[in-house]
Design a protein that fits this description.
Elements: H1 3-11, H2 14-21, H3 25-35, H4 46-52, H5 59-70, E1 76-79, E2 94-102, E3 106-115, H6 121-143, E4 155-163, E5 178-180, E6 195-201, H7 202-212, H8 217-226, H9 230-239, H10 243-251, H11 257-361
Parallel strand pairs: 3-4, 4-6
Antiparallel strand pairs: 1-2, 2-3, 5-6
Helix pairs in contact: 2-11, 7-8
């Protein structure tokens, strides 16, 4: 399909065309490229993900993905409803929130983030605690007095970030795209932990993909989530043919411009609305940090001023000592000249006496 044909398709429905017209040029181009067949669409958008990765319709796909990430065989046992509302934040930038129970009654919470900045470590800890408490409540109800804490299964939080925050881009972490939480004790004692948190930096993976290509099933899934480029898609399907079916499902949306525009415009409005909110929060936090930094700099400035005054006082003392030494040196030079004069006089007297003795001797 050419670009004029794609535009004519969008214009067939006035409401669809209206939504498309309201988008910026930067927002329009990915859609046009998709409808023209040049690229795929990232399934980090909620509607697409739930269609392509639906655990009800395609459990094997989600099992394959989770297995590749957790590096073990996975079989989905149950799709869990989100019972707890206490941790649901208004205006959250959680694009995907999928809760499943896998073998051994282990719970996996899969989160999709467009911006990693809005899913800090503290938030993942809260989510993990929520899952642990849900499991605890359920097991207590089922087992009653027979409940044992050792019966509890690990919980897994997988956070996929389309754009990682600074912590994941600096230092040694900047070269890695998987960030797994580890619990260690300074004594070396080994105790079982229920919390398993993995951050996945899709933007860092995209850079790695250019260098190493697709080598494992894990690479395949991360490519599927992070790239829409034709060369990457071809390489992925050649290496893992089962992904052709997934891309065919995505391509079927090319015949549903109304649905795509509805999803896309909702997502942009959602992100714009929440971006403003989080920008305000970030600016507030930054102002707090700047205020603290300013106070610290003022304290350092006072310390430096005090040190400067002390150094100036020491300098004045040294200058005074220098002048005293110079004066003493002049006195010594004067005394030295007097001694030299006396020495000359003595030498002259000695010479006169020597001559006198020689004269008397003759």
């Amino acid at each position: 399909m050419s670009e004029p044909e794609a535009i004519r398709m969008l214009m067939k429905d006035p409401k669809t065309w209206e939504k498309f017209s309201q988008l910026s040029l930067e927002q329009k181009q990915p859609l046009l490229d998709f409808f023209m067949g040049r690229t795929s669409l990232l399934i980090t958008y909620d509607t697409f993900f739930k269609r392509i990765m639906s655990p009800e319709r395609h459990p094997e796909r989600l099992e394959s993905f989770l297995g590749a990430m957790l590096e073990e065989e996975i079989r989905i046992k149950e799709i869990l409803p989100r019972e707890s509302k206490s941790f649901t934040e208004d205006g959250s930038l959680v694009i995907l929130d999928l809760l499943v129970e896998i073998g051994g009654k282990r719970i996996v919470n899969l989160e999709m983030q467009k911006v990693g900045l809005y899913f800090p470590g503290e938030r993942s800890e809260v989510y993990s605690s929520d899952l642990i408490m849900r499991q605890y409540t359920r097991l207590k109800a089922e087992q009653g007095k027979n409940f044992r804490y050792r019966d509890m299964s690990p919980v897994y939080i997988l956070i996929m970030m389309d754009k990682s925050s600074g912590e994941f881009l600096e230092g040694p972490a900047g070269s890695r795209y998987l960030h797994r939480r580890q619990v260690n004790y300074d004594s070396g004692v080994q105790l079982r932990s229920l919390e398993n948190i993995v951050y996945i930096s899709l933007d860092t993976f995209r850079k790695k993909l250019q260098n190493k290509g697709i080598q494992t099933l894990q690479d395949a899934w991360l490519t599927f989530f992070s790239s829409v480029q034709a060369k990457d898609i071809v390489a992925l399907i050649n290496r893992y043919p089962e992904f052709r079916e997934y891309y065919d499902d995505i391509a079927s949306y090319r015949r549903k411009p109304k649905e795509v525009l509805h999803m896309y415009s909702e997502m942009i409005a959602f992100l714009d609305r929440n971006t403003v909110q989080y920008m305000v929060e970030d600016m507030t936090n930054q102002l707090s940090v700047l205020k603290k930094t300013k106070e610290e700099l003022e304290m350092q400035t006072k310390d430096l001023e005090s040190q400067t005054k002390e150094l100036e006082s020491q300098y004045k003392d040294l200058e005074s000592q220098k002048k005293d030494l110079e004066s003493q040196n002049k006195d010594l030079e004067s005394q030295n000249k007097d001694l030299e004069t006396q020495n000359k006089d003595l030498l002259a007297e000695v010479e006169r006496l020597r001559n006198l003795v020689q004269t008397n001797a003759t």
